Amino acid sequence: MRNDTWFYLPWAYFLKTRISSTFKLVSWGFIYVIPTFVISLSLWVDFSLAYILSYLIQFAVIYNFYEVGYIENDNETTKKEKNPTERLGPKEKLYYENKKNNIYIFRIIIGFSLLCILGYIESYSCGFIYFAGASLLILLIYLIYNRIRSFLTLPLHFLLVCLRFLSYIFLGTLYLSATNLLFLVCMYPLINIIERASNPKFRLTLLAPLYYSERKLAWFRAAYYIIVSLLLLWLQTLSVVIMPWILSLYMFFSIYRFFGLLYILRDRKSV
Question: What is the pTM of this model?
Answer without folding.
Answer: 0.92
